Amino acid sequence: MSRLYLITGFLGAGKTTFLKNFIRLFAGEKIQLIVNEFGQEGVDGVLLADLGAYLQEISGGSVFCSCRLDQFEKVLRQSADIAADVILVEASGLSDPTGIRKLFSQTDRFPHIDYQGAVCLIDAVRFPKLYATARTCQKQLAASDLAVVNKTDRASGEQLSETLALIQGQRPDMPVIQTSFGAVDAGVLDTLQKARALPAGDMPLTADLTLRKLLVTIDPSIPPYDLQKFIEMFSEDTFRVKGFIQTTDGMYLADCVGNVVSLSPYEGEVPEGKAGHLVVLSGAGMPVSKRVREAAAWYPAYILDIS
Questions:
Q1: Cβ contacts of residue 249 below 8 Å, gap of 6+?
Q2: CB of 100 within 8 A of CB of 143?
Q3: Distance from C-alpha of 300 to C-alpha of 191, rounded to nearest angstrom
Q4: Nearest one of 272, 185, 195 to 240, comparing CA atoms
């Protein structure tokens, strides 16, 4: 089975430089590198061609939009023949990767791929301005499991503080690594793994008063289909929904970003007291409390408490 990592981040954040460092963490393993360029002519592929990986480029649009999704899925299916130990995907800086979890939750389509999570590269200098003007930045952050704040050597103290505050305001559950020139060590893999395994009840909160948190307790008699539909009714008004939920078909992990609802069977060990709760994170001005209660009214037998 191939372990797949997604590298995302807005234009100019330093994804290619980071990838050159990141790929060295897999020395001795067979690597497939998929580079996505929004423009017609690929540039990053040329820059990465000497890394010793099996390189494929997808140009002319984002691999997460309809114009290139079919080609991306074709490359992923063909990767079974390559039998790489690790697949690294560098997404276009203009891409919206919020569908990544849903894509790889289809284990019947990609049985050879084990999705390891997404790393979001962030330019410490430009991020505050980009975050306010480019919605793609918010979506890239929403879809990721680890933030790497790059170019800290160029950022003023004020710029770095504002960047970190914006990240924590939207994603208080996300670990953050600060670096320059995309430099990371093997610890980044451990941090990413721990972030994806973080029980929902341990999702931390900051002092940001704009952040809202709800805890929804679910009865174990709920079928997976009804759980999916329940979350879909309010997910669009959230930043993140996460939790281990016992259902009629066994334990499931809900790990949802925005309106992309991902629900998958979970066979790992769930810490005592962590099962049966959905943690719902949202922001000021988002009517999530009302929407969750409206959704709960459709499933009164399964929703035990909202607090």
A1: 223, 224, 265
A2: yes
A3: 38
A4: 195
Cα three-residue angle 205-206-210, rounded to 5 degrees: 95
Q: What are the residue ranges in the chain where pLDDT is below 70?
A: 37-54, 59-63, 65-68, 198-211, 239, 257-259, 283-285
Return the number of other C-beta atoms located less than 10 Å from residue 206's C-beta. 14
224 neighbors 263 (Cβ within 8 angstroms): yes
Structure tokens at 254: 């809900």
Task: Report the alpha-carbon distance of residue 14 to residue 231 in Å, rounded.
Answer: 35
Closest of 202, 300, 183, 207 to residue 242, by C-alpha: 202
How far, rounded to the nearest angstrom, does the alpha carbon of residue 1 sit from its chain's CA centroid? 20
Given strand 303-306, what is the order of strands in its sheet?
263-265, 250-257, 240-247, 277-283, 211-218, 303-306
Please state, in angstroms and rounded to a whole number, the distance separating the CA atoms of residues 6 and 280: 24
Tokens of 261: 């609802």
- Contact criterion met (CB below 8 Å) for 224 and 302: no
What integer pLDDT is reported at residue 109 of this predicted model?
A: 82
pLDDT at 63: 67
> Is 160 within 8 Å of 123 (Cβ atoms)?
no
Report field, pTM of the whole predicted structure over 0.70: no
